[in-house]
Amino acid sequence: MIEVSNIEKSFNGTQVLKGISCVFETGKCNLLLGGSGTGKSVLLQCIVGLMKPDMGSITFDGTVYTNSKIDIRQEIRRKIGMLFQGSALFDSMTVAQNVEFPLQMLTPEMSVEERRERVEFCLKRVGLENAGKKMPAEISGGMKKRVGIARAIAPQCTYLFCDEPNSGLDPLTSIKIDELIHEITHEYGITTVIVTHDMNSVIEIGEHIIFLHQGKKLWDGTKDEILNAEVPELKDFIFSSSLVRAAKRIDEETEGGMAAFAEGSESGGGI
Amino acid sequence: MLTTFGSFVLFLRGMVTRTERLSVLWNRTIDEAILIGVDSIVIVSIVSAFIGAVTCVQIAYNLTNPLIPQSTIGYMVREMTILELAPTITSIVLAGKVGSSIAGGLGTMRITEQISALEVMGINSTSYLVLPRILAALLMFPMLVILAMLLSILGGYLAGTLTGVMTAQDYIEGIRTDFIPYNIVFALIKAVVFAFLVSGISAFKGYFTTGGALEVGAASTGAVTNSIIAILIADFALAALLL
Questions:
Q1: pLDDT, tens digit (0-9, with 9 covering 90-100), for B65-83
Q2: What gap in Å lies between CA A201 and CA A195, rounded to an integer?
Q3: pLDDT along chain A (271 residues), means of 10
């Protein structure tokens, strides 16, 4: 479990995060939802330690991360896997070398054979068992995301962070990536935090959703509760999605569209 | 400017405070040494051979006094090459080739979040990415400068004898006259200092790139120009201090 308490962050006098407090639950896909420029990615970067918050604290399973000693921060960082928006694969390495890299650096006690087995396992887990020898420039955007996930889970991370995992992907590939993240979260019981503004992801994998607006947390709850949330900004955000608007229109016409939406979300299959 | 210098010092300190394992550092340094050193042999060879040749021909053109022996041309080529041309011109060439490569490479890694990926993994990115580059430069620059010295003197010999401005015997006599071994040491000290300046400044410029492709280009240009200015200032300072 990750606890974020009263986080504030400003850039050149502009306050981007305004006292955000929230909890990311273990074994669940926690979604940080919000429009562009609401501070989602900044909050994520503060949590993983790429940015230092001006105020507040972040705790990983009871261990305070912010302002703690470098050894403690390093220990926590080694339990973190992250999927970046642009995948951030090392372009001088092959796909297999990318996945092997954190193992080489973080677990020197592993033998070459053990590392190779782990890489094969991770690549197979994300459905890329035949792409190990390819360079990142030779694979598609969706495959890059899969390699990013494989690299993140290779050192058996406890916390998985995904910064807009669906950006730049077609809807079908997006769903597959969402499903993969969801499966991995439950398979390994890890705490997953996903930054997104995609309502499809909410429907697919939003087990715990935190809605941010203008640097503040306005709402949190489950995907089943989100449609009944009485927060105007959240309603505006949800119904800006053409998918949800269509479901609402069907609902108005047939008195069942939103129910179908909820059913779709429960089954994990979406609309 | 003072703030930038302070940031540079902190950047260097961060690089050596939490270093990666020695085996990782060694492998990375060897990889970088190949990129910095081996891949620069051709350009350094061409530049230094022609500089030696041009120096020889131009000195011969200016030395018209019959009282000055022809061997003076060889002597002057050697002195200019060892003291100034080989270390300084080679380092300026390498500032263009290696400096832009370091800044461009690190800048691209920064904007594509590869450096952030290293940091999230708990790896000290400056130690992993920058320290091997600086160590490799410190190792390879002196070697390339020695190569440049040899090829410049050889270039001067070929130019002098093939164009007929002097005999081979005069040239060899000239390059053996009043040889001071300390000059070689001085040139190598200069090479090490220039190596540190080029690799350090270029890495600093690239590592702190923000924005996109345009800024990566600007970082590379800034790295080259700043490195060349730093080389020239250091060149004067070292000459004033050590000669």
A1: 888 899 999 999 999 999 9
A2: 10
A3: 92 91 92 90 92 92 87 87 92 94 90 93 90 93 92 91 88 88 91 89 87 91 84 83 69 61 46 34
Q: Which of A41, A50, A97, A98 to mutate to test the interface with B (most CBs of B within 10 A)?
A: A50
Give this prediction's pTM. Answer: 0.86
Angle between helices A171-188 and A141-153 (to 10 degrees): 10
Quote the pLDDT of residue A70.
Answer: 83
Of A80, A84, A102, the CB nearest to B113: A84
Specify the CATH superfamily of domain A1-79+161-233: P-loop containing nucleotide triphosphate hydrolases (3.40.50.300)
Flag if A85 and B113 touch (Cβ within 8 Å).
yes
Q: How many CB atoms lie within 10 A of CB A117?
A: 12
Cα–Cα distances in Å, from A26 out to A23, A30, A56, A86? Answer: 9, 9, 21, 26
**Structure-block tokens of residue A224:** 């089943």
Distance CA B239, CA B236 (A): 5
* Tokens representing residue A127 in the block: 């459905």
Residue A71 near chain B (CB below 8 Å) = no
| Domain coordinates in residue numbering, chain A | 1-79+161-233, 92-157, 241-271
- pLDDT at B187 > cutoff 90: yes
- Extract the tokens encoding A260: 């179908």
Chain A residues within an 8 Å CB radius of B117: 82, 84, 88, 90
What ipTM was predicted for this assembly? 0.83
CA angle A91, A168, A183 (to 5 degrees): 85
